Amino acid sequence: MSALNHDSSIELYTENLTIGYARHGHPLMVQEHLQLQLRKGELVCLVGPNGCGKSTLLHTLAGLQKPLAGSIILQDKDLCSYSTPEKAKLLSLTLTDRVEVDKMSVFDLVSMGRYPYTNRFGKFSPDDITTIEQAIEQVHLSEKKKWSLDTLSDGERQRAMIAKVLAQATPVLLFDEPTSHLDLTNRVSTLLLLKTVAKAFQVAVLLSTHELEMAMQLADQIWLMSNESMAVGATEQLIANGSFQHVFQSDLFTFDAMARRFIIHNVPE
Ligand SMILES: Nc1ncnc2c1ncn2[C@@H]1O[C@H](COP(=O)(O)OP(=O)(O)OP(=O)(O)O)[C@@H](O)[C@H]1O
Would you say which domain of life the source belongs to (predicted)? Predict the structure, then answer.
């Protein structure tokens, strides 16, 4: 048994995890030897260049694709040993960059988060209804709970998607690029909302994002993925050990560690 089993703040960890695909019968490795942890109350931001494997990792951690090697331990048990209904009460993955726009109301969408808890007739208890109402309230959509999703702004639809996973009440929440397609204010407010959710409900939140500068300000931990490897740590640690500079090195810009931002070279006059 790993020593990590005895750390009650850890909801999920990986042991020597290799992620990737099987292609024409051969393994296509995307990342290997991953030793990662998600803790209660922490916001973790997964950042890295296009194609380095962020979505592959999120899908693997959610159990949607099998690891090529190693294991994922969720609340002290191997992820593979959970049934789908058991897993739905412990872990959610939200693909918020592709919110389906349809005629469903906010209330109906958020209600879907309660399905893992309903009986076989799918009937909601009064407690389920209270949980749904509270989740909608937490994302400030109560006044629009009967509105159809196609009448909401992109930012409001993202908040409705977040309310759905709040209603699902899992201790681990995974989000694949929750801020894509949003304007600056909504990108900031979405990340702040997820940070607040992590703290207020003491849940583990992991999100992938290309919002590097925001991640540096808000994340408790950053998982900084490159095409070859992964660096893990708080922003200050990753700046101090040169990880940001290493992963995002380019002739086009440099990373200013003091200002925590990228400076573009040779901007045309
Ligand atoms: N179904 C698949 N079969 C084989 N290889 C795949 C498959 N899906 C993705 N890949 C490969 O896995 C690698 C990682 O892709 P992934 O989508 O995880 O990257 P990402 O970091 O999420 O990228 P982005 O920032 O562009 O969303 C890429 O080289 C990609 O081509």
Answer: Bacteria
Round to whole Å and give the CA distance between 260 and 16: 31
Whole-structure pTM value:
0.92
Beta carbon of 227 within 6 Å of any ligand 1 atom:
no
Q: Across the 269 residues of the chain, what is the mean pLDDT of every consecutive 10-residue run?
A: 72 96 89 96 96 96 96 95 94 75 87 87 87 94 94 90 94 94 90 95 96 94 92 94 87 84 86
Which neighbouring-strand residues pair with 23? 26
Report residue 269 as tokens: 């006059």
Using CA positions, which residue lies closest to atom 6 of ligand 1? 21
CA separation for the pair 245, 228 (Å, rounded)? 15
Backbone angles phi, psi at 105, to 5 degrees: -80, 165
Instruction: Find the largest Cα–Cα distance for the chain.
Output: 66
120 lines ligand 1 (CB under 6 A): no
CA distance 247 to 25: 31
Q: What is the ipTM of this complex?
A: 0.97
CA distance 202 to 200: 6
Closest atom, ligand 1, to C-alpha of 225? 21
8-state DSSP, 117 = G
